[in-house]
């Protein structure tokens, strides 16, 4: 057994942490979030130069052959910096899904552009009625000569507002709307006729979009993998996303905990640092406990992200549930212990609180994963 | 013991309901139903409707414009206006300053200020907290130096709700630094248009502007604006706190939010069924419902003691603690109910609803996550929940 980071991971961690410290102070982050784009293309380019955009891809595809463990250390640093760039959407979720399903030709076309930062992807899977259920897909893809006609709606597509391509899931078969069988995945250019994109900011300062498409025609070559067979890969990529998001949450928690303890030491009321009040000490200790256990669950999630389905799913649901609850405790306590200051938008505390809250929602909230995990016990 | 409302009380409920039905303006109703934040005009419009009916100040003595209602009637009234989702009556003039002036103000002050509180032509704000004096309010530093016919006031107030709407502020200032900290505090009234008063916005975690920092630089406050004796500010502030506690549980508003939660959960789907049919989800709602019932019964019991002439003791702090915890839990469940559609953030919608614009997701979703963030304030303000527990520990348990 070994819970230590390997050499590559340590190097990655050092460079990522150094980068966040140097290029991602809170005020700079806030001004990037307020810009039209909502993040910095220049920073994205920097990610490419640092090799991060190619991290999870195979060497023969131009990547670095990293796995969930490498993504974990990167995402933890991103959490500390509240990074805005679409790494989760474009690389962790869509990039990996695309690489898993795409054929040699498709990959040769797109992956180099993804890795050099000139092209971004977004995953359009969830729908208005699907909530967190991955099998529930109503969007349809009707085969039509050498093309497909896609019709449907996709909700809250992470970074869907400015992606160059979408991975859109749609039904080519299966029994009704809730069947793992019969779900296909298509690569669709953002400027395709028949595709409407409605972008918006999200509560954490990131962005997303709703997509609607009616009789949107794509060539047969837009199909990724076998027709009707995308579900397993989609589920796998959600699990990669969960491992990555959990690591990001861990980074957020570290900062919140550290900031709160510092505040308890410096804020004085009743002529004494408020950290002398035992009830606040205990609250800070509860945060510490949640933080420490979250780290363990993040390691577990990264470790299991590539295991066989049964082992993987339960472990990742456990992790996502734990992180969701721990994140809530951290966010609420940090706000409470800061008093009025914790409510203000100017201070970073409220932004970490918001990010931890939205992380809980993304890819299934704590209660969804509790139910998943609970079912695994049957 | 008689836990149900009497027929007279039920008749009164009907009267209130019919009044609201007839008088609550439709455009404002639509805006409030959309979960949008009321603006100054919205508050004033609704308060003036209540005033014209004579219902704006239920808890004031009748000869000053009160209604002469029993505590139970006031409670029923609160329930009905909460159920109708009207803008809430701003507490600063009506539940805070009014009672203070009635108990401590001079005859002149009553005549000068009470009418404009009742008809909502003066908007008051509360200047207590300072950057270095929050929970430890008695350590406040804003200085008022005696200059004969006036005080010269210097310092800063913070977290001042709606200072940017306010015409006037009631304010705790330090008139002496001798003796115990509490003894040097005085209660004064100042005009927000006075030279030297500057209001700077503070944006909170929902992205909106309701609180402010107020800077006071050489502000001249005439001596006649001192309420009570010089040095009586702390006594007045404590009196006010006692007055507030039973109102703060927010039972009626929470009951309304529980209804909203049910309506939303009936429309949301989970595994092809209404979310409301999901036992796991509904059980958690049920638990909060039970907590709310326990709070409501406790609140009624305290009210009944009050009617029987036994004023609420410091144990009423528990109403504030449980009331805010329940409010917060409901906002959490509401945000959870809408899943991914809690995430999109639309500031315009928080201010005025979707209006003519096609909503992103269900039209009720947009305000829910910002409300959740915003309601974290309720365990911080009005004496934080930690401070309320300290009060109970000390004053009730003798620890
Ligand atoms: C949205 C909002 C609106 C407000 N509106 C107004 C207004 O209109 N007018 C006004 O005057 N003020 C207003 N306030 C201020 C509010 O009353 C203060 O925020 C509150 O009193 C807490 O003070 P603080 O923010 O300085 O926190 P602090 O007092 O610094 O408290 C920080 C933390 O320490 C804890 N703590 C402090 N002392 C103790 C202790 N002895 N034992 C255990 N724990 C302790 C607190 O509970 C809190 O968790 C508002 C605040 C908010 C958030």
Which fold name corresponds to the CATH topology of the largest domain in chain A? Butyryl-CoA Dehydrogenase, subunit A, domain 3
Question: Between the first and last Cα atoms of chain A, what is the distance in angstroms?
Answer: 29 Å
Oligomer: heterodimer
| Largest beta-sheet details of chain B | 4 strands, mixed
Mean pLDDT of chain B: 94
Number of strands of chain B: 10
Low-confidence stretches of chain B: none
Ends distance of chain B: 32 Å
Structural class of chain A: alpha+beta
Mean pLDDT over all positions of chain A: 97
Beta-strand content estimate of chain A: 15-25%
If classified by CATH, what would the architecture of the largest domain in chain B be?
A: Up-down Bundle
In N-to-C order, the SSE pattern of chain A is HHHHHHEEEEEEEEHEEHHHH
Please tell me how large the radius of gyration of chain B is.
Answer: 22 Å
Question: What is the count of DSSP helices of chain A, taking H or I runs of 4+ residues?
Answer: 11
CATH class of the largest domain in chain B: Mainly Alpha
Determine the CATH superfamily of the largest domain in chain A: Butyryl-CoA Dehydrogenase, subunit A, domain 3
- Name the bound molecules: flavin-adenine dinucleotide
> What about the largest sheet of chain A?
4 strands, mixed
Helical content band of chain B: 40-55%
**Looking across the biggest beta sheet of chain A, what order are the strands in?**
1-4-5-8
């Amino acid at each position: 057994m070994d819970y230590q980071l390997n050499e590559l991971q340590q190097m990655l961690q050092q460079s990522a942490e150094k980068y966040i410290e140097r290029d991602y102070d809170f005020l700079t982050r806030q001004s990037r979030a307020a810009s039209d784009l909502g993040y910095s293309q220049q920073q994205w380019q920097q990610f490419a130069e640092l090799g991060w955009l190619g991290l999870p891809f195979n060497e023969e595809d131009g990547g670095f052959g990293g796995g969930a463990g490498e993504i974990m250390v990167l995402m933890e640093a991103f959490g500390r910096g509240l990074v805005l760039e679409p790494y989760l959407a474009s690389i962790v979720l869509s990039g990996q899904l695309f690489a898993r399903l795409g054929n040699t030709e498709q990959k040769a076309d797109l992956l180099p552009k993804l890795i050099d930062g000139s092209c971004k992807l977004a995953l359009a899977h969830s729908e208005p009625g699907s909530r967190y259920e991955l099998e529930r897909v109503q969007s349809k893809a009707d085969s039509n000569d050498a093309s497909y006609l896609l019709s449907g709606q996709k909700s809250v597509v992470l970074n869907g507002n400015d992606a160059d391509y979408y991975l859109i899931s749609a039904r080519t078969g299966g029994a009704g709307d809730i069947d793992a069988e019969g779900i296909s995945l298509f690569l669709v250019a953002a400027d395709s006729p028949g595709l409407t994109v409605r972008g918006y900011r999200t509560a954490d300062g990131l962005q997303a979009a709703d997509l609607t498409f009616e009789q949107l025609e794509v060539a047969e070559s837009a199909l990724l993998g076998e027709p009707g067979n995308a579900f397993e890969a989609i589920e796998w990529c959600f699990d990669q996303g969960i491992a990555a998001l959990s690591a990001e949450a861990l980074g957020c928690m570290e900062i919140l905990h550290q900031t709160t303890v510092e505040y308890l030491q410096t804020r004085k009321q009743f002529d004494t640092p408020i950290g002398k009040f035992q009830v606040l000490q205990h609250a800070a200790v509860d945060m510490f406990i949640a933080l420490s256990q979250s780290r363990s669950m993040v390691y577990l999630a990264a470790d299991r992200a590539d295991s066989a389905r049964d082992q993987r799913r339960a472990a990742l649901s456990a992790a996502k549930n734990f992180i969701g609850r721990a994140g809530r405790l951290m966010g609420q306590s940090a706000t409470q212990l800061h008093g009025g200051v914790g409510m203000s938008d100017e201070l970073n505390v409220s932004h970490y609180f918001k990010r931890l809250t939205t992380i809980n929602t993304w890819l299934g909230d704590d209660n969804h994963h509790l139910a998943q995990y609970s079912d695994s016990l049957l | 013991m008689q836990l149900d409302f009497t027929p007279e009380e039920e008749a009164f409920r009907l009267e209130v309901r019919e009044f609201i039905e007839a008088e609550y303006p439709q455009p404002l109703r639509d805006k409030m139903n959309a979960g949008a934040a009321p603006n100054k005009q919205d508050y004033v419009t609704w308060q003036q409707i209540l005033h014209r009916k004579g219902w704006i100040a239920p808890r004031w003595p009748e000869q000053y414009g009160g209604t002469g209602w029993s505590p139970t009637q006031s409670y029923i009234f609160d329930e009905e206006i909460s159920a109708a989702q009207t803008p809430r009556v701003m507490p600063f003039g009506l539940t805070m300053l009014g009672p203070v002036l009635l108990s401590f103000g001079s005859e002149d002050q009553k005549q000068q200020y009470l009418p404009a509180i009742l008809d909502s032509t003066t908007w008051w704000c509360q200047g207590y907290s300072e950057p270095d004096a929050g929970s430890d309010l008695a350590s406040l530093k804003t200085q008022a130096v005696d200059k004969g016919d006036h005080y010269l006031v210097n310092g800063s107030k913070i977290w001042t709700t709606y200072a940017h709407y306010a015409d006037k502020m009631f304010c705790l200032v330090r008139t002496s630094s001798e003796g115990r900290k509490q003894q040097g505090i005085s209660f004064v009234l100042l005009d927000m248009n006075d030279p030297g008063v500057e209001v700077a916005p503070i944006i909170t975690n929902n992205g909106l502007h309701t609180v402010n920092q107020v800077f006071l630089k050489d502000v001249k406050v005439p001596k006649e604006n001192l309420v009570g004796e010089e040095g009586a500010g702390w006594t007045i502030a404590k009196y006010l706190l006692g007055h507030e506690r039973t109102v703060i549980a927010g039972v009626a508003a929470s009951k309304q939010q529980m209804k909203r939660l049910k309506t939303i959960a009936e429309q949301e789907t989970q595994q092809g069924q209404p979310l409301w049919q999901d036992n796991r989800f509904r059980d958690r709602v049920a638990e909060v419902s039970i907590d709310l019932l326990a709070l409501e019964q406790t609140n009624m019991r305290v009210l009944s003691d009050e009617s029987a002439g036994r004023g609420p003791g410091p144990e009423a702090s528990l109403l504030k603690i449980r009331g805010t915890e329940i409010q917060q839990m409901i906002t959490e469940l509401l945000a959870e109910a809408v899943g991914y559609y809690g995430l999109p953030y639309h500031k315009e919608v928080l201010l005025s609803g979707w209006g003519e614009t096609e909503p992103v997701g269900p039209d009720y979703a947009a305000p829910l996550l910002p409300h959740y963030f915003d309601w974290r304030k309720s365990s911080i303000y009005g004496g934080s929940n930690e401070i309320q527990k300290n009060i109970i520990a000390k004053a009730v348990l003798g620890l």
